[in-house]
Design brief:
Largest interface: A-B, 17 and 22 residues
Shape of chain A: globular
Mean pLDDT of chain B: 91
Low-confidence stretches of chain A: none
CATH superfamily of the largest domain in chain A: Type I PLP-dependent aspartate aminotransferase-like (Major domain)
Shape of chain B: globular
Strand content of chain B: 15-25%
Radius of gyration of chain A: 22 Å
Radius of gyration of chain B: 14 Å
Number of domains of chain B: 1
CATH class of chain B: Alpha Beta
Oligomer: heterodimer
Strand order of the largest sheet of chain B: 3-2-1-4
Helix content of chain A: 40-55%
CATH topology of the largest domain in chain A: Aspartate Aminotransferase, domain 2
Mean pLDDT of chain A: 95
CATH class of the largest domain in chain A: Alpha Beta
Distance between the termini of chain A: 50 Å
Largest sheet of chain A: 7 strands, mixed
Number of strands of chain B: 4
Number of strands of chain A: 15
Chain lengths: 402, 148
């Protein structure tokens, strides 16, 4: 297990901006030097295309790309052929909705989702529902904003064909009881799609134990590069699923009027894939595992809890998630629009997210014009929490004076 | 703090808390345009009534941060009573000021000069200019929907 205390020195952005307090990891994590180096190394030393070339360099690039797939498979306890590389979580979830959902869902069917979803988990299914005249059903959230197993049971029916839910909320940080939900859905022959973008940076994922049909996440939220994401799909399901993009490398044979696709996962990866992204993601997995995902989780959760404890003592501050499951704090300063607040933090070199966080239904459920969100990760420190709290007091007082 | 104090002037916060010309009215003589900044949720509707070439009235409504909402109020105060041509000149001057470019006729801006500090906060440029974009579009492209 690594020591989180020394990791700050691994991050170029923090070295370039020594005063920066980066509290926007939920949007994207910073990238450690080994990951940046690995990507640069590919471009500098063997930056050629994969699969196509029979020359040695191309073989090396192909090996690196495919070994990234194996690393991802090991990381989440899947088989390599169950790992499809995509641009990110968004394109992975869209692939499921278009490639799988559009042929599965029929008129009158029901798709169960929630108001906690990121737009990338919700909108692909909303569109499927509209096109197929199917119904989108929302799991009612409990009083604190959580998805509960009981509430899931209250909406699931004989017409339910798909359950598409987030594993960890990107606004409130709550962990969904996804294991129970998947187990129940499986017993009813309901397909399950898990948005794990916020879960993967914080917890060990074992798809063989979860038993979900699909699970998606992004590289860039777990210290890997942008532009690479993962769709895990059960082999049986992926084998039957139609690709939605057509072009180079996804086929075995092309005739004038017909095409024969490759086997999964390659049939889903038309065109030149994000090669550097996959190679960088493999290095990010190694970095994450060297330190230990539990160590990272415990550290960032502890900082978020410290922050919430201080915020709760403050007059004029409203916290939306008093219980911390992961490392997100959602809050507002009373009477101050989140975008006004964020400029004051910014002047103190504190990077916070403000607004809807691509999850407008959460803001609507909370009945607010968006929230401030501080998210902590392994490179944050207790000093960051203190500066964040001091800046919160300053922001509150600054706007009180008008 | 100096930059922040320049961004959040007393006048701006006063217009935020006590907006002038706020609230839409039903009158077919008004042209209307609704604009949003989707990334942050600013949402503003602007209405205006022209009598000949003169801006007789401007109304606004919506939600957003103090910079966005107050700016709609200040814009209304500044442009009511102006000719279309003069209003266009003021809108252009406002854009230049917000971008930190030199403004020839600073006095044109009247009270809107208080948004000078926004140029130091590029992330807030969209907030300050939303209502000005709306009025510009109504005045020039006749894009405004008929009010109903």
């Amino acid at each position: 297990m690594g020591n989180v205390k020394t990791t700050r020195n691994d991050f170029g952005v923090l070295k370039t901006h020594p005063r920066l307090v980066y509290l926007d990891t939920c949007a994207t994590s910073l990238k450690p030097d080994p990951v940046v180096h690995e990507i640069s190394n590919y471009y500098q030393e063997y930056g050629v295309n994969i699969h196509r070339g029979v020359y040695e360099l191309s073989h090396k690039a192909t090996e690196a790309y495919e070994s990234a797939r194996e690393a991802v498979a090991r990381f989440i306890h899947a088989k390599p052929e169950e790992i499809v590389f995509t641009k990110g979580t968004t394109s992975a979830l869209n692939l499921v909705a278009s490639g799988f959902g559009m042929s599965l869902i029929q008129e009158g069917d029901e798709i169960v989702t929630s108001e906690l979803e990121h737009h990338s988990s919700l909108l692909p299914w909303m569109i499927v529902a509209k096109k197929k005249n199917a119904k989108l059903i929302y799991v009612p959230l409990d009083s604190s904003g959580r998805i509960t197993f009981q509430n899931y049971l209250s909406v699931v029916s004989d017409r339910t064909k798909v359950v598409a839910l987030t594993y960890v909320s990107n606004v409130l940080g709550y962990i969904t009881p996804i294991e129970e939900i998947i187990a129940h859905a499986k017993s009813k022959n309901i397909s399950t799609v898990v948005d794990a973008a916020q879960a993967v940076p914080h917890m060990k994922i074992d798809v063989s134990r979860l038993g979900c049909d699909f699970l998606a996440f992004s590289g860039h939220k777990m210290m890997g590069p942008t532009g690479i994401g993962v769709l895990y799909g059960r082999h049986k399901v992926l084998s039957k699923m139609e690709p939605i993009e057509f072009g180079g490398e996804m086929n075995d044979n092309v005739d004038k009027f017909d095409v024969f696709y490759k086997e999964t996962p390659h049939k889903f990866e038309a065109g030149t894939p994000p090669i550097a992204g996959a190679i960088g993601l493999k290095r990010a997995i190694q970095y994450l595992e060297d330190i230990g995902v539990e160590t990272i989780h415990d550290h960032s959760k502890r900082l978020a809890e410290m922050a919430v404890k201080e915020l709760m003592k403050m007059d004029g501050v409203r916290v939306y998630n008093e219980e911390i499951d992961t490392s997100v704090v959602a809050f507002n300063i009373e009477g101050v629009h989140p975008h006004d607040a964020v400029s004051v933090y910014d002047a103190d070199h504190i990077a916070l997210r403000a607004g809807h966080h691509c999850a407008q239904l959460v803001s609507k459920w909370l009945k607010c014009a968006g929230t401030l969100r501080a998210s902590f990760y392994l490179y944050n420190t207790e000093d960051d929490v203190e500066r964040f709290i001091a800046s919160t007091i300053k922001t509150r007082d600054f706007f009180r004076n008008f | 703090m100096l930059n922040l104090e320049n961004l959040y002037r007393q006048v701006i916060m006063d217009h935020y808390k006590n907006p002038r010309h706020k609230g839409l009215i039903r009158n077919p003589e008004y042209k209307m345009l609704h604009l949003t900044n989707t990334s942050c949720g600013d949402d503003i509707t602007i209405q205006t009534m022209m009598v000949g070439d003169i801006i007789q009235d401007i109304r606004h409504d919506g939600t957003g941060c103090s910079i966005c909402c107050s700016s709609a109020s200040v814009m209304s105060e500044t442009l009511i009573g102006k000719t279309r041509e003069k209003a266009n000149e003021i809108v252009e001057a406002f854009y230049s000021m917000i971008k930190g470019e030199p403004v020839e006729n600073v006095e044109l801006l009247e009270e809107a000069i208080v948004y000078e500090g926004v140029s130091k906060f590029p992330a807030r440029l969209k907030c300050a200019t939303l209502s000005w974009r709306a009025i510009g579009a109504i005045l020039n492209k006749e894009e405004g929907e008929d009010n109903g």
